[in-house]
Amino acid sequence: MMLTVAVIGPAHALKGEVRLDMRTDDPEGRLAPGTALPTDPAGHGPLTVARLRFDGKRWYAAFAEAPGRTAAEALRGTRLLVDTDAEEETEDDSWYAHELIGMRALHADGRLLGEVTGLEEGVAQDRLVVRTPGGDDVAVPFVEEIVPAIDEEAGTVTIDPPGGLFPGLGAAEEVR
């Protein structure tokens, strides 16, 4: 599956550098100099990263195929892609949102809790968004203690929620 790593923004300065809107948590790995990335629209690529830098606030890149400002400005809005199917096996506990969305969410005791409809990024940890059969959206902390198992073949996510996380399932813990 092709995923967006970054979207090319406006040209910066005169030497063909562009600002990037990052969509990855590993810019230096995904956009290392020498890396050739397919693009959308396909007619602009593949693009080979010549330089990558971070100024403390924003990411900037230059591409071998766009040596000047005019060529760089023509790339504005182009999405830089990565083929996740062609990558080496990732860590066992790493998941893309598209791999989780649509899975059935089951309680540790086997009861249906709902369906995974999204994955939200968080500061401390990500959260699975589960839509219950009653239509409520529940944000479940995506940590091993609460989400102990994911079975890709069965299309299920096992959740062992604390009381009160899901409507009608256990009492909320007392706040002290």
Task: Give a short summary of the structure.
This protein has 176 residues and is mostly beta strands.
Structural features:
seven-stranded antiparallel sheet, single chain, mainly beta, 176 residues, six-stranded mixed sheet
Question: Could you explain how this protein is built, in words?
Answer:
With 176 residues, the protein is mostly beta strands. 7% of the residues lie in helices and 39% in strands. It has 3 helices and 13 strands. The protein has helices spanning 27-30, 69-73, 97-100; strands spanning 2-12, 17-22, 36-37, 39-40, 47-54, 59-63, 79-83, 104-107, 112-120, 127-131, 137-141, 149-151, 156-159. The strands form 2 sheets. A 7-stranded antiparallel beta sheet has the order 3-5-6-2-1-7-4. It has a 6-stranded mixed beta sheet with strand order 11-10-9-8-13-12. The longest helix is centred in the middle third of the chain and has 5 residues, at 69-73. The radius of gyration is 21 Å and the shape is elongated. 22% of the residues are buried. The model has no long low-confidence stretch (mean pLDDT 86).
